[in-house]
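P.,

For your records, the input lines for the assembly:
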Amino acid sequence: MNQNLRIVLIEDDDIIRMGYQSLLTDVPEFSVINAYGSYDLAKKQLEADQPDVILLDIQMPGTSGLQALPFIKKALPNAHIIILTVFDSPELVFEALTMGAGGYLTKNSSAAKIIDAVREVSTGGGAMSTNVARIVMHSFQKNLDSPLTKRETEILERIANGLTKSQIANDLFIDQETVRSHVKNIYIKLDVNSKSDAIKTAKERRFI
Amino acid sequence: MLILYYMCSKLSIIKVSFIISFILLFSLKLSAQSYNFTNYSLKDGLPQSQVMVIYQAKDRTLWLGTFGGVSNFDGREFTSYSKADGLSSNSVNSIVEDNEGRMLFGTERGINMLKKGKISTLYLGQVVTHLLKDKKGVVWGLTEHQLFKVVKGKLVFYPFKNKKISTIKADRHGDLFALMSGEGIYKLNGDKWQLNQALPHEMQALAIREILFDKQADNKIYLLAYQKGIYLLQNGVSKLFFQNPDIDTYYSLEQDSKGNMWVGSERGAYLISKDGTIIKFNGENGLSDNQVDKIFSDAENNIWISCFSDGIYKYEGDAFIRYNTFKGQNVAYPISGIAADKNDRLWIGTYNRGLFKYDGNQLENINLPDFMGKKIYFVYADKAKNVWISVYNNGVWKYNGKQFIQVLKPDRYENSSIVEDLEGGIWINGPIASTYLKDGKTQKITGFDGYSSCIFPLSKDSILLGTSKGLTLIRNKKADPSFKIKQLDNVYVLSIIKHGDNLVFATLGDGIVTWNVKTKAIKRYVVANGLNSNDIYSLAIDYRNQLWVGTGRGINKLTFNKAENGYTVFRDHPLIVECNQNAILPYKNSILVGTITGLVRCKVLTSLEAKKNPFIHIQEVGIYHKNDRSKDLSLDLNGRGDKFYKLNYSQNHISISFKGVYLTNPESVLYRYKLVGADNDFSKPVPNTEIEYSAIRPGSYTFQVYAIANGQQSNIEQFSFTIVPPFYDTIWFKVMAFLVMIFLIWLIFYLIFKTRERKKFQLEKLKLKEQEKIRKQTAEDFHDDIGNKLTRINVLSEILDKKVDGAEKEQKELIKMIRENASLLYTGTKDILWALDPHSDNLFEILVHIKNFGIDLFQNTGVEFKMEGVLSEYQKLHLSMEFNRNLTLIFKEMLNNVLKHANASQVLIMVIETDHNTINILTTDDGDGFDLGSVERGRGLNNIQTRCKRIKSTFEISSIKGKGTTTTISTRIPVTK
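Structure tokens returned:
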């Protein structure tokens, strides 16, 4: 049971929270340590919870998910945060990713997808949905000074086109592990380079 | 008698008859009438009493050369120049005006020149006795019997080889002639003097002083021999023209406009008429007994006579003659009445010497005791030509041609006026009562205001009474107070007469008043209209229907001007006499006027001579600048009246001074002027000689003025000028300024309008932005809310799915459907949000959206989905929201169809640019294809068709069973290359 992944949910909608909690608990490797209705309610306990993965909503009463991100990151530097929200506007996506979110999922994703993403993130990979990939690509397309390497851009492109990791791996004649690490790198780059001009400009360009 | 014989023996018979008639007539005119001469001497301004030369300049003024300098006479004033003004000598012998308007004076010491008021010396030397101008304008003269001409200010003598020239003269054509003593008459031909006529032998020894060329006939030359008389040289033959034993020395010679000759002697002047009549003028009859140095006929045909020590006399003609002695009798008494009896004898009443009778020969004083030495109030002839006489303190007498009958006995009041009415009754007025006599019966009428002074029969039953208080009508022998002429209220009426349609009233102090009996119009004439005085004493009408009035200061003649419906007043006679009330009578072809010193006889018909007009010229035009004195101008026009002077708009104060010369009657000169451009008509006649206009508005004007005198008009002189308006006053400027103003106003409005528009626009934009923000916000919130709810459904259905056993296929299916639909709803709302995003208004975004949809749709379905041809340039192609929505829905439907029914493994969408530069979108799948005719698919395809129509695109579909389906949407989206 120690190898179970410690998951914390921060989601204000009761039914969704309880639902996800139930679905995730069903997964053998996962243990849902706690589920909070808001960050404000969570923050006292969070450290004590020592989660590996946090599923974080954005629209919450009190402190929003994006506002909470840096705090969580600070308090729990080793935790992986997946944003799980209704909305995936480019602005929010970029904001989340550059603030250190390890993944961004929309709530209409199936339980399977969510479980998959949690696994990915826990192993250090990046959970990137098709749309997020598109968003990231779009922004970087406009920017010639993209911090991504060619390979990373290729992978990003394919993700944007809806290919699965295995499909990408087949396509590029690399293995899935490589794909995963590339995606991780992309995330890291997004995070590390959150203050970089490239991303700033990309942000600015989208966020008029 | 002796004289006659002597004359006969000397001359030819033709001449004898002439001489005889001459002598006969010569004895006649010794009647003591006074001729009319007006004298101008020192007291009038003449600088010295001896006038040696008279010259008339172009402006009609007279220049008189005396021993005391030279003087210019304009009819009223003398302007003199002497040594003090620059003359070399005060003794001026000859005068001429050159063609430049300068006066040259020949004096004892040479020639002086007067130009624009300044005297300069042309030649300093010996005496210059004669100056004359030839046809070319060259001035010739004589100095000490030598002939010279003036060339460029210098004297050039004509070489006559020591011959003496006694005189030079011009004939009526303007040719110059010079008389060489003892030889003959030379004529100037161009530059040369050539002998024209040699003196006949008998004349060569004569001392000839003057020659005169006949003004009416050529070849008739009169020669004045100093002590011998006047000779006529005609066609080479000389004969004695005039000689009088009474005359010692003949001094001067002139011919008047009628052709009569005037001769000046050492004692008066002689007028020799064409018909031979000779009149001697001397001190007894108006002229002077002194030596007549010069006689001059001026341009108005007046005769001027210069008398030693008396100055000059102007002969006024014989239009009127004053009788203060008559036939040896002294008649210089105040005349109270004049009448002509049955035998056409004149009866004259006086105020202090009784009654006189004139039978054509003798003047007889009626020395009947009833009349002798008495005061006569009136003398009147009734229709039967009985003479009625009112005697002081002796009643009224009637003379029937044979004897005197006393008709009215002396009364308390004297009878001063009388008239016979239309019924034959006699009215005799005293101051307060009227006596009516008819058929032996007398009747007294009283009841009128004031003292009666004259009577007039108006109609059968009416008599007009003129009183000291106006007019009273006596109707049917009774005073009728209802009749009134307002203008005559309190006016002293002295006489009444009917002339044409007018009743004319002579008043004391109020001039002449006329009343038109038909129109009842009243007109008044006073001194300003030309009358000598406003006191009118007598009225009479001559046989030419002219109205004569005797005033307190002379006699005027009035003619009725039909066109103006008024009278023109003539001031022909400069005689100043005080006339007496009702002492006037039209007699034969004259009017006899009784004055306070005798009778004046006025000729009704003055000799048929073309009356000369007065002459006017503008002397000076002063132009004054509004602000700058230094810009004042003084123009001397010198006849250049047709040039337009340009003046600055500040030079709008102009004074014009002019002078009208009418030597015949300078007192009567009046002026009429008009400023063309400002006045419509000429002004009323005024005596002003200077007119000022101030503050004249810019424009073009012509000032015109002419003089009138005695009904004659002078030339019209004019001065034309243009006042240039300042630039801001011109039409152009005003129009421009107006246009600019209009433009500015328009501009202001335009700017106001534009700013408002812009504000509105900005406001609109702002509103729109706000709206969009709100919309987006609302959509987001909506989506958020829906999204969460949908997620709930999703999550719950997943949980349910887990709880349902895999064997329960139906339930599993239902749950799946729930989840799918929830998912569709989710994406649907997202789509709405996407559609509202302004960034998604271009083709690129739309295509990308479709692509993403496709990718998402076919993800994990095993179907390979590709979309190509989505170029980022398409961001520039902006499309409406409607287009956006419809196109998106089209593809959603189509791709859904493919997924559900096609069973394809590959789906491809291609965006192509056509040859027409439009966009086409091809969708191909390699599925089963379908039968186009089948109804099942119909509904979906119809939708697609409708939507395509909405976006103005065409939809084509081709499908082959087993091979797949291809659809083409041809849009009209233009692609700019």
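Two observations worth noting. The mean pLDDT of chain A is 81. The first strand of chain A starts at residue 5 and ends at 10.

Regards
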